[in-house]
Amino acid sequence: MTKIKHTEKEWTKKLNPQQYKILRQCGTEPPFTGKYVHNTKEGNYYCAACGALLFTSNSKYDSASGWPSFYAPANNTNILELPDNSHGMNRIEIKCAHCGGHLGHLFPDGPRPTGLRYCVNSLALEFEEKPLEKKEK
Question: Measured between alpha carbons, how far is residue 28 from residues 56, 91, 112 in Å?
């Protein structure tokens, strides 16, 4: 895995102020305001900071939480899971394994088959529409 390291000054030039607040300062966008909350198009979701593939539309679902939610990452090696005890809560923070950008949190209340909910800020993502490949019979 390639680790991407930039100075904070470089990140401020690469990201817009809203993305910087989410990805570099562990912020959270207000619920139901992100551009991907209701996105139902087929395709891939990438880290907005470094372009690593994080999720696909195959695992996206409507959690009614106000943020894009996925029951599994596209590739487990691209997501870091870290304890987060901030704000008086015990949660699991998810970060991009390549650039360390804050994505959101992981909760154990998702649908089958994993029972997990990767709750992600839209500002931490870039979406590329792409028809999903059909499995051969």
Answer: 21, 14, 26
Question: What order of strands is seen across the sheet that includes strand 69-70?
Answer: 60-61, 69-70, 117-120, 102-107, 91-96, 79-84
Q: What is the DSSP string of 66-118?
A: SS-EESS-S-GGGEEEEEE-GGG--EEEEEETTT--EEEEEES---TTT--EE
Q: Where are the alpha helices (DSSP H) in 3-86?
A: 8-14, 17-23
Q: What is the topology classification, in CATH, of domain 39-129?
A: 2.170.150
pLDDT per residue as tens digits for the range 35-65: 999 999 999 999 999 999 999 999 999 999 9
Where are the domains positioned within the chain? 39-129
The DSSP call for residue 124 is: G
The two most distant CA atoms of the chain are separated, in Å, by 51
Q: Which of 47, 50, 96, 119 is catalytic?
A: 119
| Catalytic residue flag (residue 119) | yes
On whether the pTM is more than 0.90, the answer is yes
